[in-house]
Structures are given as structure tokens and as C-alpha cells.
Amino acid sequence: MLKKYIILYLALLSVNYSLLAQKRPNVVIIVSDDHAYQTIGAYGSKYAKTPNIDRIANEGALFSHAYVNNSICGPSRATLLTGKYSHKNGFRDNETSEFDFSQDSFVKQLQSAGYNTAWVGKIHLGEKLQGFNYFDVLVGQGTYFNPVFSRKEGRELTEGYVSSIITDKALGWLDQQESTEPFCLVLGHKATHRTWMPDPQDFGKFDSVDFEIPATFYDDYASRDAAKQQEMSIDKDMLMGYDLKMFPTLEAMMADGNFKRMNPEQRDKYIAYYRPIYQELESKKLTGKALAEWKFKRYMIDYLNTAESMDRNIGRVLDYLEEKNLTDNTIVIYLSDQGFYMGEHGWFDKRWMYEESFRTPFLMKYPGKIKPHSTLSAKVVNADIAPTLLELASVKVPVDMQGKSFVHVLNKPNSEHRKNLFYHYFENGEHAVSPHFGVADDRYKLIRYYKRVENWELFDMKQDPREMHNVYSDPSYKNIVKKMKKKLLNEIESFDDQEAKAIFLTDIEN
Ligand code: CA
Questions:
Q1: Ion ligand 1, residues whose Cβ is below 5 A away
Q2: Would you say the pTM of this structure is higher than 0.85?
Q3: Is 407 exposed, middle or buried (0-12, 13-18, 19+ CB in 10 A)?
Q4: From residue 200, how far is each of 42, 145, 160, 197, 255 by CA, in Å?
Q5: 25-197+307-415 and 424-504 share one CATH topology?
């Protein structure tokens, strides 16, 4: 009799366990690279249609105030994984940091709770991944054509166009998943990173658009010394060949690394599209503003054409989840690793605590838990994603994660999450952006630059949403500076950023 009960008890236990396993939501995170919210339909883009990214917003939530802690590729992904700021997870910049995969991550936590986990596509944190049952990641930045991937077994080149290949590989992995165990897939796109190389089938889609020149395109950076020194101007720093594919000769074009690796068919399509554009440009003999605006237009076209393939491929993932009846129990997140300049301040690239690169597109759907078509205005940061997903998966959040779960705002469009946002950009290299840290509240933004430029900036975002007027030295803002410095010190201390603290305290002592 006792034996019978024990068997029954064990049987019940296993039923409960499998029910629990089925109940845990699947997770699909799609991380793009350098994809500006200004170029996403759901965020009100004037030009781009992103019907598939918009599907996530239509079936879930659009976060209107999602931010990053350090606006650059590798550090942003390190924060996504660890839920920690750069000074705690150790990956401060793309140029000198090496990611320590032995540290904890939300993916490791999910794996311990029974999830099958995978990262496919761009990761930009090396090739020695831990915490993933499977990985198939681009080597370094990856290439748009015929990219080389790295798996546990080694490296392999796959012929074709990167956004489609990454999606093929991701769907291939999903196809192997057993329905009894939950999965967590991170799909990392290379698009829309420089040098914006579209899938040839998307050539011509924006050629006839009359792009409006951004209001701050001719910014002279008065009152902002760090902005004066940058090297990310479309006019001065965007390269005619490397970036815009305008080479003086066909031979010069073919000598460029991006074209060298193409097969003849891919090359012919690029030649057929870009050479006539070059011939026409040559005949125009543009200089000065006319040339700067021509560059802006070509940048917009290449960028938006590159995003077309990514959006189409995101549609394939959403279709797959629908076809397999996985939609109801799958959390889908779309985000970029940071925002990007589409000519604002005259720039391309990222890095700054100014809005266009500080913010990032962030969309999330989870049927039954997030109302369709909702806009959430709570301020969240990328470090908050890890603890949020753990809470949704009923997994305990490790105490040393610095992010805070925003599950409580998911169905409350007007509720708050973070009052203040702390930012720290460390890299001191490409594009000559001075390292800086700062704090932003609902109205003001205070920034301290160091290393290249040693100074402060204060912006009144209500009076000056485009961040053109640094009012740090304006006597009428004296009290605001004081208040914001207090907030900054609070943030520095709560995140335990010793480097920022030392710089902050030097100023007080002097
Ligand atoms: Ca990036």
C-alpha cells in the first residue's frame, strides 16, 4: 500500500513539474545594432516602414523612454546579459575590454531553471560563450556578405546575406526544441551597423524620397566643447568610398574589403546599382553644403535599405512562432544595442548621452500579460531587462544585479519606474568622443566629460529638447546644477562607480 502511494506521489510530482516547465514563458530577444528609433514606423518615422517590428508594438508595448547605460555595441550587450553596468560587468569599451563569460547572467539563471538557451548572430563579446546550450555567433563585427560564424566546433563561412542567414540559423535551432522545455533565444542582428550594406533586393526603395535635413544638421556646437571635437560628422568624417560606396574606379571599389569577399553575383548587383550613382555624382561636381546634403541623403538611403531586410527577417521569426502555436507563451523583445544619429547635430554614430544615442528602441510583447498596442512611458534602462525576464520566468533575481525589474509597469501606461538615469561612456578612441558620465531626470540632464575634455554640461530638456544650449554656467541655473550634482552623486554611489566618484570628488575639492 505504502509503495503504491509513493508511486502515485512521484507521478503527481512529475506531472506538476512538467506543468510548471510548460508554464514558464519562452523568451525571444532580437537585438539589432545601431538601429535608430527615428527610423522605426511605430516610433513615428517619417520615411521608414517597419511593418514587422511594428507588429511587436501592435501586439504588445512600445517603450517610449528606454535608455542604455553606455551607448556602444559590446558594452550594451554585456549589460543586457548581466543586468549590471559596465564598471561592474567589466566590459567598458569595444577597444580594450574582454568579456568575462564566467560571471553570472540572466541566461545562466534561466539555463539552471531548465531553459534551453541560445545566442545566434552578432554578440560582439568574443567566441567563448558560457551559459548557452547552443551558439552560432558572428566573429567580431561580422560582415554583411558571406559572414564567418563561430560555434563550439569552430569557425565556418556561410554564403549569403547576413540578416537572412542569422534568421535561418535561429529558426533552425528553434525547430530542434522539444515542446516540453522552455527556450531562450537571443537573435543578434548585424544590421544596421556601419557600413550599411543592403540586401540587393532592397536597392532603390528610398531613392526618390526627398529627405528633410534635420533641424540641427548644421550645429556649430557652441557651448559644447566635446561635441566640437568629435569625428562623426556626415560632412567631414563619413567616407565617400568605405561608407557610401563611391569609389573613383571600379578597381578601387573591388579592393575594398567589403567587396573583396563578395561572390561574382553579389558584386555584379552592387556594381550595377552603385556605379551609375557615382557617375551622376561626378557629373554634378558638388561641394560644400550641397555635397554634405548629398551625403546625408545617400546615408539615409543605404541605412533604410539595410533595415528592410532585417525587418522582413523579424517577420519570419514572428510568423514561425505563430505557425508553431508558440505565440501565447513566448515573450518577444525587440531592441537595438543603442540609438543612433540620423543627421541630428550633423552626425552618424552613437556614444553620447544626448537623446538620440542615449535612448534605444524597445518593444515587448507577451500575450495576456501586456496589453496590445500600449505605449509605456516609464523610464527603463537595458540593465533592467535581465531581472525583468527572470521575474517573468519565476526565477529568483540574483542580488548583485543592478537592474530593477519593470514587470510592475507592464500594464500601467502611466506608472513610473526609474526617477533618474545614470550613464557612463568609457571608450576613448574611434570618433573622438570624450568619455563622460551623467544623470538625467524628468527635465534636466547633467554631464561630466573627462580625459579628452574636462568640463560639465547641463541641458534643460523642456526649453531645449535638442540639446543645443549648455546652461551649466548660466547663473539662473545655479541651483539646478547643485540639485543635479546631488542626484548624480546619489546615482554614482548607488551603482558603486568608483571611477566616476573619484572624478566627481576632484571637482568638489577644487
Ligand atoms: Ca551598436
A1: 33-34, 73, 337
A2: yes
A3: middle
A4: 25, 11, 11, 9, 20
A5: no
Q: What percent of the chain has pLDDT over 70?
A: 95
338 CA from centroid of ligand 1 (Å): 6
| Domain residue ranges in the chain | 25-197+307-415, 424-504
Q: Quick one: angle between helices 73-82 and 385-392, nearest 10?
A: 30
Cell of 327: 505565440
- Ligand 1 centroid to Cα of residue 76, in Å, is 8
Interval 415-445: pLDDT, tens: 899 999 999 999 999 999 999 999 999 999 9
- β-partners of residue 137 are 121, 150
Per-residue pLDDT tens over the stretch 327-353: 999 999 999 999 999 999 999 999 999
From the CA of 26, how far away is ligand 1's center (Å)?
Answer: 26
Q: CA nearest 68: which of 355, 443, 414? A: 355
- What's the CA-to-centroid distance between 67 and ligand 1, angstroms? 13
**pLDDT of res. 3:** 55
Distance 351 CA to ligand 1 centre (A): 9
Q: Is the peptide bond before 192 cis (omega within 30 degrees of 0)?
A: yes
- The per-residue DSSP string of 205-228 comes to TTTT--PPPPTTTT---TT-HHHH
Q: Separation of 31 CA from ligand 1 center, angstroms?
A: 10
pLDDT in tens, 262-299: 999 999 999 999 999 999 999 999 999 999 999 999 99
CA–centroid distance, 140 to ligand 1, in Å, is 12
Ligand 1 centre and the CA of 467: distance in Å? Answer: 22
DSSP state letter for 435: P
Q: 213 is written with which cell numbers? A: 535635413
Q: 453 alpha carbon to ligand 1 midpoint, in Å?
A: 23
The fold of the 424-504 domain, in CATH, is Arylsulfatase, C-terminal domain (3.30.1120)
CATH number of 25-197+307-415: 3.40.720.10
For residue 337, how far is its CA from the centre of ligand 1 (angstroms)? 5
ω into 79 cis (within 30 of 0): no
Q: How far is the CA of 293 from the centre of ligand 1 (A)?
A: 24
Residue type, 107: V
Strands 436-440 and 421-425: what pairing? antiparallel
pLDDT tens-digit map of 179-193: 889 999 999 999 999
CB 124 within 8 A of CB 34: no
Residue 119 to residue 127: CA distance in whole angstroms: 11
**159 Cα–ligand 1 center, Å:** 24
Helix, strand, coil % in the chain, rounded to nearest 5: 40, 15, 45
148-151 and 134-138 beta bridge pairing: antiparallel
